[in-house]
Amino acid sequence: MCRPVTLCVLAAMLLAAGCAQAAESRAVAFPGHRALAQGDLTRRPAQGGQASGKAAAHEGEELDEAVLETIRAQHNLPALAAAVVRDGRVVAVGAVGVRKAGSDVRVTAEDCFHIGSCTKAMTATLVEMLVEQGRLKWSATLAEAFPDLADAMRPVYRKVTLRQVLAHRAGLPGGAESWPKGMSFLDVHRLPGTPRDQRREYLGRILAQEPAATPGEKFLYSNAGYALLGAAAEKAADTPWETLMRDRVFKPLGMTSAGFGSMGTPGRIDQPWQHRVENGRAVPVEPGPLSDNPASIGPGGTVHCSVGDWAKFVAAHLAGARGRPTPLPVKDWSPLHTPAFGGDYAGGWTATDRPWGGGRVYTHAGSNTMNYAVVWMAPLRNFAVVVATNQGGDAAPKACDEVAAAMVRTYCPNEGSPK
Fold this sequence. Notes:
Elements: H1 7-17, H2 34-37, H3 65-75, E1 79-86, E2 89-97, E3 112-114, H4 119-132, H5 142-145, H6 162-166, H7 185-189, H8 195-207, H9 223-237, H10 241-253, E4 259-260, E5 274-278, E6 281-285, E7 303-306, H11 307-321, H12 334-337, E8 350-354, E9 359-366, E10 372-378, E11 383-389, H13 395-411
Antiparallel strand pairs: 1-2, 1-11, 3-7, 4-7, 5-6, 8-9, 9-10, 10-11
Helix pairs in contact: 3-13, 4-9, 4-10, 8-9
């Protein structure tokens, strides 16, 4: 029988792992993306297997439950979920497996999954809205965006721009260095006040430290950077990041399942539990306030939602990239989709080229070490796919990539007929 991990063990595990920020930094870095990377999408995963959960179809098409279940079983994951966007709408959503390893409580297509650093595209979108309203500027320096912190921050940070932060070019720390020096995962969780208060305190400490790299010198993936963008939005709108996300991103898109932190209620199996891997086995992690990264870095990676709701957000980006209207009040999507400073990272997206996508595609992955999620978006094919699982470890990205490849083969318009 699987036993849930204790909070003390969880805190130690997250601290030792640096909360997977290095692992999730750039989705294209995962070896499991090779099938998509090479355009080798001719083989279809083997069919068959007993489905542990039921896949549900949205808007008329049924997602292939057998494919999901076969891949889930091959990689021994508790649950696996996917959604497909085509021609501007979510055409299929499905989920298989169980909410908690060792239980018989099946997942549903409406269940929530943790999307980790795929939150970053949402925070970037929120900031772009405020830029278009004239409340922020991508060219604004940190001293201009945070005048109350300017005197205390290292002088080298004062001229760093929000655009540099967006592209992970600000020299801010990342990976295991995400916590201010002298502080632990638990210390950051226990910062006083509201999440907004905690973010300000957290950033005050981070900006008072020496940068991890000379600002502007190189790409350095940083959750602290996106925490900073969230805090800039809070200051510009005088509203907590969580409220801004609900009111300006989730509500217009109808993302009714979206929330923050671990999924579900402590002591109940009302949503998928997260799982870490120990000696090759899935160990359930009970939901609770310490079962995810601190709220201080929430803008960099603490959103959870159903894959169908996540697909609604991706559909908006897909439409925006094609110059089509969306439910979000964004007129210019180019700052979010155009890599800056000679790199391949845009606003919460890595830009690359894939034959199956007809050229330019966008991707990102996310993990807090206990979940994994990945998105691929191909504007030239008017197609996107999102995939998520409630387990971390090496098998999770491999399984999610296999599902993404299968969805590309099944749903993506073929080469030569982009829409």
